[in-house]
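Escalation from tier 1.

The customer reports that the assembly of two entities below gives different structure tokens on two consecutive runs. Tier 1 could not reproduce it. I'm attaching the input and our single run for tier 2 to review.
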Amino acid sequence: MIKKLLIVIPAYNEKNNLKHVVEDITYHCPDYDYLIVNDGSTDGTIEFCHENGYNLLDLPINLGLAGAIQAGMLFAYEHGYETVMQFDGDGQHKAEYIDALVTQLEKGYDIVVGSRFITEKKPFNLRMIGSFIISFAMRLTTGFVMCDPTSGMRIFTRNIVKRFALGVNYTPEPDTLSYLIRCGARISEVPITIEERISGKSYLTLVRSIVYMTQITCSILLIQWFRRRKPI
Amino acid sequence: MINLTLRILLIIGSLVTLLYMLIRIRISRMQIRDSIFWILFLLSLLLFSVFPGIAVWFSKLLQIQSPINFILLFVVFVIIIQLFFISMKLSKTDSSVRALTTRIAIDNHSTESEISEQSTEE
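Tier 1 run:
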């Protein structure tokens, strides 16, 4: 039985979406704790969270998604949380699926990912080509078939949380999942659906997407061979 | 054509450097993002030495007399680009350190004055 779950919500300039996200979580899962990690926002997210009494971890400078997640993981680790869920602050993820991921994790997995494409087919656009390439690279190097490697809704057990909190190269990206599979982590996917962004713009522009894709693919195909494996 | 001695030297040189860096990356906990550049760079050097035809083709295209000059140009260019990015990153790190240090100093000051206020009240 899982005692404590912390839902980590990284937020960079998501003031307009946070209310919806937090209400969604407190409505569907009032028993779980959540933590908003403000990644140096400039749109008054801090004041907004204080006004509404949200549980906030405030980073004084912008670190990027990886830094925000690491901060949340460290918080969870030091406060003794058994499991941590990564949940987007932009309103794309639905809290109604949290329990499905938790239930699946209780079956003995180390990581459970909310996948958009288990039941549905991938739409054909640029981002999905990226997703397909990453899937393929993962399959090639680990033999594990992942429908939605880039999904940002994931739940981790404490031993994985520890790695994210204290390690150097544990970014919340598919190459880390690939590395963890090679270390012996058991990963599972459960079907979810997501909503379109409520407000604001996505961080991923075309150029950034291409740079991101290249980095992740290189990392999965090249670097992972040389990383020292720490068995789970 | 690149002569054989030089080719062998290039192959050995890039292989040894590649191996050395891979070992360093493995033990020094370098960030993956930063190590990708070095691995790709050394692989491209290895490619040039194993298949000198690539350098010959490019040097003909750019009307460079000797293919080794093309390799030199390539290396210098890539290093300049990398230097620029490192400079940018360092600059960012520098301002982050400054922002963090001032943040800590201000936070310490306010906690200290809170403590002294409490002690005078008592």
